[in-house]
Amino acid sequence: MVLANRVFDRKLRMAEIQLSGLTFRYPGAEDATLADLSLSVRRGEAHALLGSSGAGKSTLLNLLSGLLPAPAGSIFFDGGDVGDLEPWARKVTQVFQFPVLYEAMTVAENLAFPMRELPAAEQRRRAEDVAERLGIAVALKVRPAGLTLVQKQLVAIGKALMRPDVSLVLLDEPLTAAEPEHKWQLRQTLRALQADLGATMIYVTHDQTEALTFADRVSVLHEGRILQTGTPEALVATPDHEHVGYFVGSPGMNLLDGEIRSGRCLVNGAEIGHLQAADGPCRFGFRPEWATLTVESEEESATAGTLPVGVRATRTLGTVRGVPHGLVIAEPISGQGDIELVTRQDLDRIVAGPAALRIDPDRLLAFRDGWRIGMESVGSGS
Amino acid sequence: MNEPLNNRAWLGVLPVLLIVAFSAVIPLMTVVNYSVQDIFDVNTRLFVGLDWYRETLRDPRFLDALLRQLTFSGIVLAIELPLGVLVARSIPRDGRWVGLILVLLAVPLLIPWNVVGTIWQLFARPDIGLLGQLVNELGVPFNYTASPAHAWVTLVMMDVWHWTSLVALLAFSGLTAIPSACYQAAVMDGANTWQVFRHVELPRLKAVLVIAVLLRLMDSFMIYTEPFVLTGGGPGNSTTFLSQYLTSMAVGQFDLGPAAAFSVLYFLVVLLLCWLFYTSVIANRGNEP
Which of A70, A177, A268, A338 is the most buried (most CB within 10 A)? Predict the structure, then answer.
């Protein structure tokens, strides 16, 4: 893909980002939108900010770009404080939720605008190069009005990469406007380009699939705080906070009230695993993939290490080696209110009624006050 | 295409056809009818073909009035359009004062046109008018009843005062429809104020500005009441525009035939101007691939 005469042969020299103690409150608002937020993004990293709407994602983006001034905390690009700089001086570019282009300019002129200080020949080479990589080279001479939504957004992505000195590319839910069938392809294009150019990108989304498939690392933002920053694998396997466990994964993590007593994990008196943590009440978490249900009447009934539950319903998602596979929705037999547990497993012989839930002891997690406790799982063998 | 199932359905269109016929087509055709006849009384009519048209087109007073009219429309458009956009840009997008500002802006539009003429007639009077007296005391001998140039300045100022609000309100509605992300993107691109206006605002204001130009072109081309009240067409004929000349011909002198021909020509000129403007805009759009 990379030819000798490519302008972007050498990777862009982009910035690494350090935020610390960032606090922001909108005038008149009671609660701070961002509270003492810290985040570091490595140079050339594809970083995703994942959070539901109202979590403070857009505010954080606007603070990064300099559209909003930060009243407290520091923003460092490559070790230099950019807190007082205008957006243009920070060399930040952004792709918005819908394609934002200069309607009266051609695509080539749009791409050229952020690098208008370069010589014309250089502008043309760079624009043609990026347009070719994004598959919009044929559209260079047209105005955006003649393009499809996806093509327009590709132009907007290209435009965000045109500045030769760009330090950071922000993407604010850039695939919102795209049809589902285009999202995957767009994301792959974007990811390939990001890796190719070594661009530092911060990708904001409320869609966990987008975050997990796009990013090297994901930060989960909730109520103005970052709950966890980690690889997609880490967010799935060891969420630091209940909310991360619940928000990441589809369906999210099961949470079950219980207690830890001398390393034994107890729910309603039933032992479901072992964890090294201080004694006391806590909440256990396990993903649907980590648990298996077996119907009571069978061999495992009431054996140690299982939790008695009642099966409510099943949802078939497909078959695995000919066996129907999907979700089982069940509820603990005693005292947990209307909590539903979901497992993901083979569905043969699962019928409504009493059953035994066995949770993979190596993977069981426990949370206290929302945060994960007992960092080392006893049975993990590591 | 499917055949209509029931031809009687066409009867449903009849009311609209009747309304359009009585409100537009029939009166217009009456005028066309008059314009090709010499009428002495109800029973004595003489078909004269295009004589009245030829006469009108050779009438120096008609041609002068037409020239004045074009000049006037050109001047007020050239002032009101940029000024209106400028005013619209300086209105805050939101906040508690926006409503009040918009209402104040709309006030000149709500004043009856002959009152507007009267207001300015008094305002600009050199002896007792606030403006006229002030200008005279500043040492400029200003008198719109004596100097054609002064009469023109007063008329243009009056029209600008009266109608810039319309352009401003239209432009403001267009500006508020621009998503804030467009502005943010421009800021991040380091665009200056002019570039923001040129590349972000102007392209998205195009549609409302086309409407504004058409409205102001047609309206200013038909201006009658205000100059009639303010200057009465004078001094001399220096502010006699087409509609005023037409009225003096039709009502004052009962030259119905020539007046009818005049009316048809007047109508055609307005139509032609609007068509020229509109097609030039559409043609521009067509050039965008």
Answer: A70
